[in-house]
Every structure is written in C-alpha cells, then in structure tokens.
Amino acid sequence: MHDRRFRFGVACAKGRSRRQFTELARKAEGLGFSTLFVPDHFVDHDLAPTVALAHAAAVTERLRVGTFVLGNDYKHPVVCAREMASLDLLSDGRLELGIGAGWMTVDYEKAGIQLDPPGVRIARLAESITIMKGLFSPGPFTFHGRYYNVTELDGMPKPVQQPVPFFIGGGAPRILALAAREAEIVGINANLRSGDGTSPDAAQSLTPEATDAKVGWVREAAGARFDDLELQSLVGFVYMNDDSKSILEGIAGAFGISVEDARLAPPCLVGSEDDIVDSLEERRERWQMSYHVIDDNAIDTFAPVVARLAGK
Fold first, then answer.
1. Which CATH number characterizes residue 248's domain?
2. How far apart are CA 68 and CA 203, in angstroms?
3. Is 1 part of a structural domain of the chain?
4. How many C-beta atoms surround the C-beta of residue 93 within 10 A?
5. Secondary structure of residue 171 in the 3-state scheme
6. How far is CA 218 from the centre of its chain?
7. Rounded to an integer, what distance in angstroms lies between the CA atom of residue 28 and that of residue 9?
8. Residue 292 falls inside a structural domain
9. What is the pLDDT along the chain (312 residues), one digit of tens a residue?
10. Buried b vs exposed e over 282-304: b needs ≥16 C-beta within 10 Å?
11. β-bridge pairing 64-67 and 185-188
C-alpha cells in the first residue's frame, strides 16, 4: 500500500540560460522538492523535455526528473522508449515518465500534426504504453496493434528502475481509467476536451465536487490497485499571505463557486502558511492526494510548506 507521504514537484516551462536552469534544479533539490518536471508543448513552453531533464539530472544528486507530460503523438513509442530508458539509466533511476494522449489544439495546428478524436488518441496512447513497458523489460518484444507494430525488438538500454514509474493524468473517465490501470502516479487534472486549458469548461472541472468524481473514477478502474497509486495535482496558483480573504473571494466569484470550494480546489493554494498546510492535509484526507506540483515561479514562496510537509 502506498503510504501517501507528501511529495512536491516543480514544473519549469520556459527556457533559461544554462546557469539559470542549473541553479533552479539545484535549488529545487536543496529545498526538498522531490522532482523537477518539464512540459512537452510547442507553444509557450521552450525546453525540450528529454534534453533539459538530462541536464537537470547531471547537475543534481537526488532530484528526480519527470516529463509533464510527453505528447504521445509527437514521437513514436520505440523512439520515446529509448530516450526515456537512457534518461533513467543516466540519472541512475530518477525518472518519472509522464505521458499523455495530447490535447492542446494549438500544438497540433501549428505543427501540422493531425488531431484525431480523443478516443483514437487515448487508444493510441494505450498501445504506446504497452510497447514502452515491453521494451523496458528483459528480452525481445513483439506487439501488433491497430496503430503500432513492433517485431522482436530488444529495447536498449534497459532502465535502472524496474518498473519505470509511469505518470498519466486526466480529467475524464476514459483517460483516468487508463491511468488507473497502467500508471504508478495518476494526475487529477482539468477536463481538457476543449483543447484549451483556459476554457470555462476546464475551470469548472476543477471544483472539489468534480475532483470527488474523478477520484471515484480512478478508484473504480483501479480496483485493488488503488492503494498503490500516488495521486498528483498541478497547482497553478500559489498565494501565501495572512490576509487572503479577498483573493479567495475573487477566485470564487470568477468561477461561480463558493469561497470554501475555492480554498480546496486542487489548482489553488491560497492563505497563510498554516492555512496552506491545513488545506493540503485536508486534500490528502479527502482524496488521497499527496503529490503536488507548483510552477517554478512559486518555488521560494512555497519552500516553507515543503520544509514542513515533505516526506510526512
């Protein structure tokens, strides 16, 4: 059974100089963050995940490195498996392999990649995960599916971690069911069916009530596996101040929810240091959610919370 101790990650989307990125990785490690994540989008996200994370691993000793998350349609699973196994090997087993079906419409449009219906993308992702797991395992692997065919391929190198922890997130039943069956880390995310993370639908899918439903879908699909899963949330807004009432009221008004729902909504952490610690403990109690990822611009603000809760 997963002990559900708190872990915290930092997501870094924007390009930096070598010095700045190195300092960020070392700061995250020094402050007690578990993992440095790099997203995989073509618009407003500069760094190529594999390259950036290889560098982060090289300049740190304990910091885990994770993709947040790879777009399955952007790379063939055989190529992806070799890159991820190499990253795990060269980081001495510090990889968290985040992968998703792809969702951001503008990525597909600007890159000229065909955006298939969600069901097709999720089915293709499921095949990719099967292939990657097969290539990470000992011996040759064969797979003949609807979208991919691999014949007697012995994936090299083999990763240090056996198994490599997969991280899959989502906000709708089908993708969360896949995550519940295949991942070690499950991200409880917005419903991104619109292809736009700022849409009203996406925002409304992040309320505590909606989160109850999502965790229920994961629990149902996982069955006995649920106790071994680590549930994760991306926190997009961190505001630490003893006087935060007006901020919470503003969030509640903007999204048409109660102040209490705004306080507990997974993407927001607002209040004093003690308030935020209490809120995180409530979320773990209610949803078994113990892994939280913040944007790197909040790393210093959030450091006292990490110091208090990481590993507890």
1. 3.20.20.30
2. 19
3. no
4. 14
5. coil
6. 15
7. 8
8. yes
9. 567 999 999 999 887 799 999 999 999 999 999 999 999 999 988 999 999 999 999 999 999 999 999 999 999 999 999 999 999 999 999 999 999 999 899 999 999 999 999 999 999 999 999 999 999 999 999 999 999 999 999 999 999 999 999 999 999 999 999 999 999 999 999 765 554 545 555 566 789 999 999 999 999 999 999 999 999 999 999 999 998 899 999 988 887 889 999 999 999 999 999 999 999 999 999 999 999 999 999 999 999 999 999 999
10. ebbeebbbbbbbbbbebbebbbe
11. unpaired
Distance CA(262)–CA(256), nearest Å, equals 9
User: What range defines the domain where residue 293 resides?
Assistant: 7-309
Residue 261 structure tokens: 């729902």
- CA-CA-CA-CA torsion for 239, 240, 245, 250, nearest 10 degrees? 0
Count of CB atoms situated within 10 Å of the CB of 58: 12
Q: How far apart, in Å, are the Cα atoms of 141 and each of 99, 150, 151?
A: 21, 7, 7
Q: Is residue 84 part of a domain?
A: yes
Whether the CB-CB separation of 240 and 276 falls below 8 Å is answered with yes
Residue 291 lies in a domain: yes
Number of domains forming the structure of the chain: 1
Taking alpha carbons only, the member of 201, 210, 174 closest to residue 101 is 174
Q: Which pTM does this prediction carry?
A: 0.95
